[in-house]
Design brief:
Layout: H1 2-14, E1 28-34, H2 54-61, E2 64-66, E3 69-70, H3 76-85, H4 115-121, E4 125-131, H5 150-155, E5 174-178, E6 187-188, E7 191-192, E8 202-203, E9 222-223, H6 232-251, E10 256-261, H7 282-304, E11 311-317, H8 323-333, H9 350-353, E12 357-360, E13 369-371, E14 375-376, H10 379-388, H11 404-407, E15 419-422, E16 430-434, E17 437-440, E18 470-473, H12 489-505
Parallel strand pairs: 1-10, 1-11, 2-13, 3-14, 4-5, 4-10, 6-9
Antiparallel strand pairs: 2-12, 5-7, 8-9, 11-12, 15-16, 16-17, 17-18
Length: 510
């Protein structure tokens, strides 16, 4: 039955009668998704940033910069699921999982409409390059799905067998990248579409890698001979450029969708050699600078190919900055990747999920504009649907809202009635934001511990220690310093009821 419904939805997407009228050719779409890039890591969001980001700043000058945009989760796997589906991750089984090694199966269930499937149905060529990290299934020589983690699981892989549940099974015509985090995983090997052409042959020798405070996240996994740990983003860039050049040369009349998902700036911070020492902010600053350079090279490529004016480029991050990066950058270089927010990656506080979100589309978006619309990465799907004339089925993109009116400067009122986010501990750590009010349905950060270790100096006193949850007025108190749970019970009641309603109905989109 699910397959039939999905088939009907796909036919509707293909039907001209189901499409919205569009006056201009459908734009090419590029999503550049950074890993762990904080709101304060980018100069156009943080005037006190110690890292130059001229290319990201240029993208903002030539497009629209959102100041109240969020990742759906404060860690990578769930956020990437939501970007691909327009659905909050807590709604699906294992929606709080962070995969490693041969981790799977895919969080995207068979029959679930995805962003690339929707665009492909509208005639787009679709390509994914870089980090996938939404789960995929590897098999052993007996044909059994591998469930073991770590090196043990990697050693069981039969490399002659097809990998299931990856980008090739969810709407992408081509894929070049990695199963999980490119620089901190048990499986260091490139996947091409649904196979690994060059399997790992030995354990990685971490003694040969750089040594600094940002280098300690590299797991002792198995590595392939063609896997350059310090130049991964250069490899990804070259592959994306090849896709763009070949597509424009061979199929210039056909729109494309490129999802470019970088290793940068996830720890370990291994910038390519030519970027070492390029900033005054240490190895992690150099890594951010390399990411900015990659952005610039992609911009140059679309301009050289003559397709920039009708190419919609979205740049964002999967969550806030990593703990170690924030602590050491603050202490050593006076750079705060979370500024001006409280919290970091994994936390329910703003620093964990308020992210850079910049959109450039010369044909439709006025240059140099800023939007304070509440936005989320789940909204990319509904926005792309509106732009391309796709009609979203009722059982798809349940948490996605169309941001096109904001992009065109036509949104006089809030587009989103409220925003859902989740912290590291999944469905147990949900947050609902409506207007100025933010309700965190649990105590504490929902992710990191602030009672000891490197984050202890950043712990704030709890002014309402008996409260079972948190309520903040983020307009008056953007630092989330004063929990108003007990002082504003009527607001708590409203937001808690709205959260329960969204959980019960399985959606936030009407």
């Amino acid at each position: 039955m699910k397959f039939i419904l999905h088939l009907v939805a796909t036919l509707l997407l293909l039907s001209p009668t189901a499409s919205l009228a569009v006056d201009a050719p459908r734009p090419n779409i590029i999503i550049i998704l950074a890993d762990d890039l904080g709101y304060g890591d980018v100069a156009c969001y943080n005037s006190q940033s110690k890292v130059p980001t001229p290319n990201i700043d240029r993208l903002a000058r030539e497009g629209m910069r959102f100041t109240d945009a969020h990742s759906p989760c404060t860690v990578c796997t769930p956020t990437r699921f939501s970007l691909m589906t327009g659905v909050m991750p807590f709604r699906v089984p294992n929606g709080g999982t962070v995969f490693t090694g041969v981790g799977g199966p895919s969080l995207i269930a068979p029959g679930r409409l995805t962003l690339p499937e929707m665009l492909r149905a509208q005639g787009y060529a679709t390509a994914a390059v870089g980090k996938w990290h939404v789960g995929m299934s590897f098999f052993d020589k007996a044909g059994n799905r591998i469930t073991a983690n770590g090196v043990e699981g990697v050693k069981q892989i039969d490399y002659t067998r097809r990998i299931e549940g990856g980008p090739a099974d969810h709407g992408f015509d081509s894929f070049f990248g990695t199963a999980c985090c490119p620089g901190t995983d048990w499986l260091y090997a490139f996947i091409v579409n649904d196979r690994i052409p060059t399997p790992p042959t030995r354990a990685i020798d971490r003694a040969l890698l750089p040594k600094h405070p940002y280098a300690n996240d590299c797991r002792g996994g198995m590595i392939a001979p063609d896997y350059p740990m310090e130049e991964l983003d250069l490899v990804f860039l070259k592959r994306s450029q090849q896709f763009l050049e070949e597509h424009v040369k061979k199929s210039a009349s056909k729109p494309f969708f490129l999802y470019h998902s970088t290793h940068a700036v996830h720890l370990p911070s291994f910038a390519a050699p030519q970027f070492n020492g390029k900033t005054q902010a240490g190895p992690h600053g150099d890594f951010i600078f390399e990411f900015d350079w990659v952005v610039g090279e992609l911009l140059k490529t679309v301009e050289t190919l003559g397709v920039a004016d009708n190419t919609l480029i979205i740049l964002s991050s999967d969550n806030g900055p990593e703990t170690t990066a924030v602590v050491h950058m603050r202490e050593d270089y006076a750079h705060d990747g979370a500024r001006p927010w409280r919290g970091v990656k994994r936390d329910a506080w703003e620093g964990g999920h308020r992210v850079p979100f910049i959109v450039r589309w010369p044909d439709r978006i006025q240059a140099g504009t800023t939007s304070d619309q509440l936005a989320c990465l789940t909204d990319v799907m509904a926005t792309a649907a509106a732009i391309t004339g796709s009609e979203l089925p009722r059982d798809a993109a349940e948490d996605s809202f169309n941001l096109l009116p904001a992009l065109e400067g036509k949104a006089a009122a809030p587009i989103r009635p409220y925003l859902l986010t989740q912290a590291f501990n999944g469905a147990r750590t949900l947050t609902l934001r409506r207007g100025q009010w933010k309700y965190i349905a649990h105590r504490g950060s929902g992710g990191n511990g602030y009672d000891k270790g490197e984050l202890k100096p950043y712990a704030l006193p709890e002014l309402d220690p008996e409260a079972p949850a948190q309520l903040y007025d983020v307009s008056a108190d953007p630092g989330e310093t004063t929990n108003l749970y007990s002082k504003r019970p009527e607001i708590v009641k409203q937001l808690r009821a709205l959260l329960e309603q969204s959980k019960t109905t399985g959606r936030s989109r009407p």
